[in-house]
Amino acid sequence: MEKINAIGRRKAAVARVYLSEGTGKITIDKRPLDVYFPSSILQYVVKQPLKALDCEEKYDIYAHLDGGGFKGQAEALRLAIARALVKVNPEDKAALRAEGFMTRDPRSVERKKPGQPKARKRFQFSKR
C-alpha cells in the first residue's frame, strides 16, 4: 500500500495527513501524539475514527498541522484521518458518517462589525 494523503479543516486549522500501513504510530510535525497533544481528551478525539473502525494498530499516520488552536487542530486531524481511511476502504464511509466524523464543522469566528466593540456586543446605550 502506498501513502494515502487527505486534508481536514476546522475553524482556522488545517491538517494534512499521510497514512501508510504500520503499527499504529501517530506522528504530528515530527513529534509523537502524546507530546503534541498532552491532553488525553484531545488524544481521544484524534483516535476516534480509528477506534470506530477498530484499526488502531493497523496504520502509521504522519500529520502536518497549520493554524488554529489545539482544539481546532485536533478536530481537523480527526476529519483528515477519517477521509484517509475512506480512501483506503470506501465501504467504511457509512460507519464513519454515522459517527459524524465525515462532516466538516462549518462553525467559525464571526467577524467584528464596525461601530461595535465585538461581533455582537454593543457599546452601552445612553439615552441622555
Descriptive notes:
The chain has helices at 33-36, 40-53, 70-88, 93-99; strands at residues 4-10, 13-21, 26-28, 31-32, 59-66. The protein is an alpha+beta fold. It has one domain (4-99): Ribosomal Protein S5, domain 2 (2-Layer Sandwich). The chain has a five-stranded mixed β-sheet. The radius of gyration is 18 Å and the shape is elongated. The model has no long low-confidence stretch (mean pLDDT 94).
How much β-strand is present in the residues? 15-25%
Average predicted confidence as pLDDT: 94
**Overall number of strands:** 5
Taking the sheet with the most strands, its summary is: 5 strands, mixed
Please tell me the CATH architecture by its name: 2-Layer Sandwich
What does the radius of gyration come to? 18 Å
> Helical proportion?
25-40%
The CATH C-level name is Alpha Beta
Write the topology of this structure.
Layout: E1 4-10, E2 13-21, E3 26-28, E4 31-32, H1 33-36, H2 40-53, E5 59-66, H3 70-88, H4 93-99
Parallel strand pairs: 3-5
Antiparallel strand pairs: 1-2, 2-5, 3-4
